Amino acid sequence: MEEFKKDVLNNQQENSVPLQEPKKRNHKRKPRTKVAKGQERPEEKDATEMNTSQQGDEKSEANADEKGKKKRSHYKKKVNKKAVISSTTVAGNETESVPEISVVGKQSEEIEVFDYEELEEALGGPVELDKLPSVFFAPDLTTKSKKKRPGMEKSRSVENEIKPDFESKKNSTAAQGKGRYSAVPPPKDLTVERKGKSKKSGNQSKPKIFGKVQNQEERLKNVEEDQHRKSEKQHKKKIRKDTENEFKISTPSVKLPTKKDKKSFASGKETNQKYKQITFVKETTDKAQHKPVSLDGNIKLKSSSSADKSTKQESVVKEYCHPYDVLNGRKNRIRFDRYLDPKICEKKIKENDSKMYIGTLRINKRNRIDAYVTTDKLESDIFIFGIRDRNRALEGDTVYVELVDLDKVWEKKKENMIRKREQKSQEEIEVDEKSKPKYAGKVVAVANSRKDRVFSGIITISRNGATTSDTNNDDKSIDNVAEEVDVIEDLAHADENIETVEQTDHDSLQPKDINKNSSTEKKNNIRMVWFKPIDKRVPLMGIPLRLAPPDIVENEAKYTNLLVVVRIQKWPIDSLTPLGAFVRELGHIGNIPAETEAILSDNGISEIPFSKKALKGLPPTPWSIEQAEINKRRDLRDTRIFTIDPATAKDLDDAVHVTKLDENEFEVGVHIADVSHFVKQHTALDHEAFDRGTSTYLCDRVIPMLPSLLCEELCSLNPGVDRLAFSVIWKMDGVGNIKETWFGKTVIRSCAKLSYDDAQSVIEGNGLPETVTIKDHKSTEVEQDIIYLFNMSKKMRERRFSNGALSINSIRLSFKLNELGEPYEVSIYEQKDANRLIEEFMLRANMSVAEKITEHYPNEALLRQHSPPHEKSLNEFLKIAENLGYSFDSSSAGSLQESFNAIESEDAKAVLKLLAVKPMQRAKYFCTGSFETTKFRHYALNVPLYTHFTSPIRRFADIIVHRQLEAALLGKKTCSYKKDVVQKTASHCNERKEGAKNSQDMNLQLYLTHYLYNLEKETGKHVICNAIVTQVLKDAFDILVPEYGLEKRIHMDSIPIEKYVYDAAKNSQSVYWKEGIDSSWEWDQKRRNDEDAVVPVGEMIALDNEEEKDDCQIALVKIPEELLGKNVLDEENRMQKFDTFSKLNVRIQVNVERSPPVVNVYPINPFM
């Protein structure tokens, strides 16, 4: 090694050449600092100070140096050398140098060097080396550092000759100019030793003297130090890249022209690279509106000159790029369209662009290829077909949608339905032009998505194990599992901030291994695991191994039946599946607490303790009302006020009273807990209550919106204690007509806590139970008050329905739990007269408050509206009712209610009400200034203005309404909320309320499945129930189990029958059972797993209508003789007939080994 280093040094000394004119350089370098004329550069200033001689003064020496530089540049001559470094130039604005090494023995080239003899004569004699000015030498050709150090650089010619890395620097450029670095190595006698930066001090004892010669050991030491420094730089650079933000935009998905390409365009030369025209947004420092600028390959940045002509600032022209659209060097196939700038979308909406709309995305649970966007600007939903047009948006996202050609989308939809029919899909699919939507669109941007969104499911190593049968690959070209595996692993590498994306070994996920068991996969090559969500509307996710559970590879069996929570990290533009990250474990499948946590996670319900900051906002305990506060309010503590709530309620937020003033005049009051007194605006508690939005009621507990100190104590209107309230008091006649209304803050003291059953006992004439405690008043007086209120509420209800109100209630279940938290008893929640009594006065209070706040704040009032039913779904319901012989008037809510009232059969009325619920939309909060007045109306209540005021303990929207009502009563010009803030609050409350409602419904189904499972397990008998047929289709029929409120669809191929006959005219289905075989989940699973299973033959009775014949997909036959009679059962042919409203016996089987648990319902074979 030592001999090699000596040979290198000797070779350097032999090939040293005199200093050339510094006209070219062969490396990229950060531009030097521009200075005004007459000023000295920082580099030259530092170098001059370092090499100043002790003789003479600094001013005269600087002048001499400047003259010497000018004279030396005119004296040159040509010489021949055995080995030279030549430079070539390329076309362009800047000169580029490409160093090359000549081979000894070949014809040598001529280069220009200084003639030192002539130079000496021109300078007037010999010059001492220590008086020469600073000379700058070429930097290391192999270095990648862009930092420029002021002062003199040491020679790196030794390293250049040891390892000439010229090929990597062919594109480097160097501008000609005075004082630039030379592209040739310096002579050995002009190299200097540099051990560090010189400190500017007046007492420098040993200044560096230019011209000090290094010995061989020192040169070798410098080479080793420089190599060590370079390795440290590269290591630090890698660490810095590893810690960069993963969403940092380094390269947009559309490749931008390089600097070389720009020069080629400018010079008129063509290039093979084709660039797509892209839109950029110019960012300005002022608040002016952004204007899109279209730029193509001939991009040129505009420059603006400042006051100082020597400096120029380039105006920043930046293209909008969503973080999900950044490729970071990957070269995968683009799967989706790039997101548009939301500002541009919003501008188009404000300009009433006929193609751009904003709305909420809803994905079909049965067929997640189909999605719909509900917008307030159109009368019908916008149909979104396929994952491409959905463009990575998730259920519940607020999205910008651009309308597209409906006919093209519909053709794709029909092709997809035909393909599914060919695959013998279990879903009921009908290619009917009547179901064609009015609008079709595609998602172009996501305006708002739920924060901290997480999903529950299971994690597997094998992608095949995570793939479900309902994968929504709507395009054959994208159905390539192996390609998607490559893409997702590239994304994993990119997520780890690896600079280059290389082809890695995918042994565990290649097509040859996809159909193998996970046990055969090579664990050392696993880079990704896969997450299968419970909610089928959520896509499959790939999780990089570093973001997965640490023991997933070694302990794969543990996660087979373990529920986990995963969040989406990002969904890149070049991947069909998003990247996820493991959050936490929930528990095993089938465990009620784990399943409940999964439900809450999927609906965005967070069950975490309140923060310390929020709890600090609570008043100290024990708490009592100050006299100063009482003096500000109306004192009603002596008034006979009581509450009527469910027996288990703890948060009592409403109370009522009635006082007879005259023969036909009453004072009726509704008193609501004054929560806004405790929850002040813009406090930590206010922000936390806003985030929660609403309380969530589960079977075993309540997840409160406010701390328990407020919910159950200070705000709850408990009997016998003074409480603050916000009251609405009317003067009414005996039938509930309002004569006068008063709003105000009050102090009340409830005398009794009554349940609905207690009040119902009084209404039925049985009086209050003996267990009820009445404080400070007589029980007979309370009973009389209940009768007064009931009589008025009954008249108010009749009047409300006669004015066009509609009431359609779905079935609600109620459970009783044992000590272990498992259900042992279930019942259907039934509304009684006591419930309707409270309902009427709460509705009237909400309407009165809505009228008051809208009058004072017409643009900022927070109201609640209910839109009419979906037109398409409503027409389907009307068609079903007509086929069953019932005529419905759907012109208004009132006419629809009258149609229901005309039905005599209670079974038919129950079934039709159940079918009528499906077209109905959910009511929503809104700000009056954000909608037209025609949108204010509440469809079901049939009133022009409505809001929520009566439940501030469990609804944040009610707290906002309380604040607005208080501001109106105080005569304030503003309600302390701007229109945009109110609308955002309304949207947030809608989202939280829907999440809470879905959580409650899913939790009820969870407890029902466990109840049915335990019932069969404990009794050892099958669970057999009565059912009603609600709808008959061509190859299926729907049933309702009234006892448990279960709705299921029975497919013909899921039961053991030989054939079935559909009669469209009578809307009936006749099935022919197999002998001795009963339907069950076991038989159905065996049939599904048997490839040779025989599908029952479907037949249809011949129709006179040619259109229906063309639409029919099963064989047409004449009416069989056994169907001519009215018999429901034909024992000779083992035939059973199903009509709408017909009753049958069904068997219920539950599978708790899946998440969520599945309830299977099968009709009983009556011929067993």
Walk me through this protein's architecture:
With about 1150 residues, the protein is an alpha+beta fold. Among the domains are: about 340-420 and about 435-450, OB fold (Dihydrolipoamide Acetyltransferase, E2P), CATH 2.40.50.690; about 635-865 and about 920-1005, no CATH class; about 875-920, no CATH class; about 1020-1105 and about 1115-1165, OB fold (Dihydrolipoamide Acetyltransferase, E2P) (Beta Barrel). It is about 30% helix and about 20% strand. The protein is built from 28 helices and 41 strands. A six-stranded mixed β-sheet has the order 37-36-34-35-39-38, with no helix packed on it. Strands 10-11-12-14-13 form a five-stranded mixed beta barrel. A five-stranded antiparallel β-sheet has the order 17-16-15-18-19. Strand 34 (about 1055-1065) and strand 35 form a beta hairpin. Helix 14 packs antiparallel against helix 26 (about 980-1020) and helix 20 packs across helix 21. The radius of gyration is 41 Å and the shape is globular. The protein starts with a helix and ends in a 5-residue tail after the last strand. Its EC number is 3.1.13.-. Belongs to the RNR ribonuclease family. DIS3L2 subfamily. It holds the Pfam family RNB. It comes from Rhizopus delemar (strain RA 99-880 / ATCC MYA-4621 / FGSC 9543 / NRRL 43880). Keywords: Cytoplasm, Exonuclease, Hydrolase, Magnesium, Manganese, Metal-binding, Nuclease, RNA-binding.
